[in-house]
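Hi R.,

As promised on Friday, here is the backbone we talked about, encoded as structure tokens. Could you run it through your design pipeline when you get a chance and send me back a sequence?
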């Protein structure tokens, strides 16, 4: 009987492994599709059936970072021969670079949009996690009048889809002059992530034994000193996990960035789909921009990967 159960358990384990591998492959298909398209020649980006084997090239990244215009007529053979490889790739597509009065190639808006995404996501994540941790500590350690009602109110801010409040927020921002500004997006993303940060951090702080703080207070620490030296050190894993989720949300946000920004503070998500080639949508440039956009959040998540499982399950601190 024991041998039968052992074989059955092994079979179930193998089946579970197969299912996990298949699910992983399904989730990786979009990543492969984007990354491969980013290195394809434009003529192969939309072939049916899809082209799997091809010679990789960097033309899409050249187009992504530069301003170009459709070329009229043929390029001078001598000019083409003397041009660097990246300019030849653009000439081959029937386009030419836009250059300033000194002959320097003008860069596209992608670097500035990418930098805007970094600024807004990092600052809003820091503010959301900092304020969420302080608020969660207050709810966890002190008895407040109407505590459950306040917690429900904080949670209720995430119940409506963002698109429902997009138009009222736009009218409000326009009235106070925050449209197309970094501070406007930072405030918006911070407010949007704050409720998630409060609830997630409250779960972590609730599991930190109060005896640790009481011992610190007996030793002469103030409440603030006990918070920074005891609670924050014990909740470091929760803070890291909360920061990952908040950063991913702010980094990927599209609807508010599309409505609230135009040029100066526009982030990468609404900019990437606007890439055009010679009168048509340039899918290779869009794929290249998307692939580069995945890199920072992938690195950030990888560095804090050990904390993510605990962030999902709210962890456990042994008393």
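Update: got your reply. Pasting your designed sequence below so it's all in one thread:
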């Amino acid at each position: 009987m024991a041998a039968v159960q052992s074989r059955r358990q092994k079979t179930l384990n193998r089946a579970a492994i197969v299912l996990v591998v298949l699910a992983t492959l399904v989730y990786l298909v979009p990543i492969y599709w984007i990354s491969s398209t980013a290195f394809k020649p434009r003529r192969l980006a939309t072939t049916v059936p899809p082209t799997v084997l091809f010679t990789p090239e960097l033309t899409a990244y050249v187009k992504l970072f530069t301003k170009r215009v459709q070329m009229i007529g043929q390029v001078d053979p001598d000019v083409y021969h003397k041009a660097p490889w990246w300019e030849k790739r653009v000439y081959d597509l029937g386009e030419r670079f836009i250059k300033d009065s000194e002959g320097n190639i003008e860069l596209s808006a992608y670097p500035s949009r990418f930098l805007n995404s970094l600024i807004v996501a990092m600052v809003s994540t820091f503010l959301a996690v900092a304020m969420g941790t302080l608020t969660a500590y207050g709810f966890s350690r002190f008895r407040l009048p109407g505590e459950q009602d306040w917690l429900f109110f904080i949670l209720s801010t995430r119940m409506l889809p963002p698109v429902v409040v997009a138009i009222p927020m736009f009218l409000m921002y326009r009235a106070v002059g925050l449209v197309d500004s970094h501070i406007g997006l930072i405030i918006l993303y911070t407010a949007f992530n704050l409720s998630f940060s409060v609830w997630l951090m409250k779960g972590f702080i609730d599991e930190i034994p109060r005896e640790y703080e009481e011992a610190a207070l007996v030793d002469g620490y103030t409440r603030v000193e006990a918070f920074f030296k005891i609670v924050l050190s014990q909740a470091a894993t929760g803070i890291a996990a909360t920061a990952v989720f908040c950063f991913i949300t702010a980094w990927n946000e599209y609807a508010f960035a599309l409505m609230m920004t135009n040029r100066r503070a526009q982030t990468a998500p609404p900019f990437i789909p606007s890439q055009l080639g010679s009168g048509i949508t340039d899918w290779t440039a869009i794929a290249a921009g998307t692939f580069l956009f995945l890199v920072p959040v992938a690195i950030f998540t990888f560095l804090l990967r050990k904390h993510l499982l605990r962030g999902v399950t709210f962890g456990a601190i042994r008393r």
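One thing I noticed while checking it: Residues 2-37 form the longest helix (36 residues).

Thanks again,
M.
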